[in-house]
Amino acid sequence: MIFEARELSFRYPHSEAEAVTAVSASVQAGELVGVVGPNGSGKSTLLRLLLGLLVPTRGEALAFGRTSKDWKRRELAQRVGVVSQREEPGFPIRVEQAVMFGRYPHLTALGAPREKDIAAIELALERCDVVHLRKRWVATLSGGEWQRVRVARALAQEPSGLVLDEATANLDIRHEMEVFELISELVGERQLGGIIVTHQVNLAARFVNRMIVMEGGRARAVGRPEEVLTRDVLEDVFGWPVALTTWNNIPQFVPLRKNETQ
After folding, report:
1. Whether the Cβ atoms of residue 66 and residue 2 lie closer than 8 Å to each other
2. How far apart are CA 41 and CA 215, in angstroms?
3. Edge-to-edge strand ranges of the sheet holding 20-27
4. Please, what sign has the CA dihedral across residues 83, 88, 89, 94?
5. Phi/psi class of residue 7: alpha, beta or left (left: φ > 0; alpha: ψ in -120 to 50)?
6. DSSP reduced 3-state for 128
7. Cβ(18)–Cβ(214) under 8 Å?
8. In degrees rounded to 5, what are phi and psi of residue 211?
9. Are 52 and 71 in contact, with CB atoms under 8 Å apart?
10. Bridge partners of 250?
């Protein structure tokens, strides 16, 4: 098991309501799990708990069978690659330097990249199709290019787990599809345990193995897309009328106008 939540709950200080309440779910090797739901439903908080960045109020968050909060950050970084929602470099760097940052958890005390570090960087650049960008300044990249570089950096860590929080936010259709396809392929090829938080419910349904539908901090539904993406669930969770159809037997929904009927 890569990640596991056991009746996981969390309340932020000075908050009256829990951000996450009694969530139980898991992510196994070779599986991509999508976490969807409206703003404020607890999606990103759930990720932070699984990564040990927050300490649960109740229940347990585990990574590789060990309580997440008990991992030393360097040790966990050797096993989990993370692509956050927003990130801007604090200083000018080139693409290959950005990807090299993924090797830092593995470097020796002297900090000099070894042969295996360089090999991991080269493989990540190649697998994410950014070799041709290696000498480019990060500031000159498009949104889609920068996201692929960030995935390459996570891949250079040679992780067993891959965590992505809104990794396709603000991307156009082409670049959204490229990132989803890349992540799905990497999870399958390398038998990673992948978890992605996204607002793109329809896209997620086409690529993930299972979904966690969050509502008000709770897991409203957990299972395969065709099991959890029902009209009743979608309308209740998002508070909006929808029409439901399928593409290659995968549920896809269309938001209706407020007074429109299917």
Report:
1. no
2. 5
3. 20-27, 3-10, 58-63, 66-67
4. positive
5. left
6. coil
7. no
8. -130, 150
9. yes
10. 247
Distance from C-alpha of 127 to C-alpha of 130, rounded to nearest angstrom:
8
- Residue from 129, 164, 182 nearest 51 by CA: 164
- The structure tokens 């969530």 sit at 23
Q: Tens digits of per-residue pLDDT, 143-176?
A: 888 888 998 999 999 999 999 998 887 788 888 8
Interatomic CA distance for residues 44 and 39, integer angstroms: 10
The identity of residue 113, as a single letter, is: P
pTM: 0.89
Q: What is the pLDDT of residue 262?
A: 66
118: amino acid identity, one letter: I
For 20-30, write each residue's pLDDT tens digit.
999 999 999 99
Tell me if residue 5 falls in helix, strand or coil: strand
Q: Tell me the Ramachandran region of residue 194: left when phi exceeds 0, alpha when psi lies from -120 to 50, beta otherwise.
A: beta
